[in-house]
Amino acid sequence: MELEQLKYPIGKYSKPESITSSILNSWIDDIESFPDQLHNLVEDLTEEQLNWRYRPGGWTIKQVVHHCADSHINSIIRFKLALTEDSPIIRPYFEDLWAETADATSDNIYYSLKILDGLHKKWVVLLRSLSEEQMERVYFHPEHNKHFTIRETVGTYSWHSRHHLAHIQQAIDHNGEYGNVI
Fold first, then answer.
1. Do residues 55 and 6 touch, judged by C-beta distance below 8 A?
2. What's the gap between Cα 123 and its chain centre?
3. Rounded to whole angstroms, how far apart are CA atoms 39 and 35?
4. Could you list the pLDDT tens digit for every one of the 182 residues in the chain?
5. Alpha carbons 57 and 55: distance in angstroms, whole number
6. Helix axes 150-173, 61-84, angle to 10 degrees
7. Domains identified in the chain and CATH numbers
8. What is this structure's pTM?
9. Which of 71, 51, 70, 69 is nearest to 61 (CA)?
10. Residues 6+ apart with CB under 8 A from 12
């Protein structure tokens, strides 16, 4: 399997020309279902399996789980900043370095799964409550030197959720072929 395909098993994110309410609702459904789908994928994995990588040089399954908790926490904060401030400048973070911290390399994924359960329930309540006008609120991302609307960012996190589910499934399907940390 080609490295690019291993890195992006569902392809790179591509924002549609027009984000209809149907597309937006589908994305919110993806965000809502993510914690249950993730739990179903990882609930029976052994410590050895949690240390399998989804591609050569990629993160382990446990790092992907912990990363999703970190990333999605940052996302809801960005959404709330956009809703309560005028075009706030968000703070990027070094996700590759965060993935190396003790909490992100821990074999205990329980707390990250619990964070994702509660966070996604809260996030979906927020998203489903937003008016069309609120969906157009923006934040500025200095790393991309660009404004992003909440509407388009919902799509990014729908993709992000599905992307990392595919990474975990890929690691499982390849039975540790890409290495582990044990």
1. yes
2. 13
3. 6
4. 688 889 999 999 999 999 999 999 999 999 999 999 999 999 999 999 999 999 999 999 999 999 999 999 999 999 999 999 999 999 999 999 999 999 999 999 999 999 999 999 999 999 999 999 999 999 999 999 999 999 999 999 999 999 999 999 999 999 888 866 55
5. 6
6. 180
7. 22-174 (1.20.120.450)
8. 0.95
9. 51
10. none
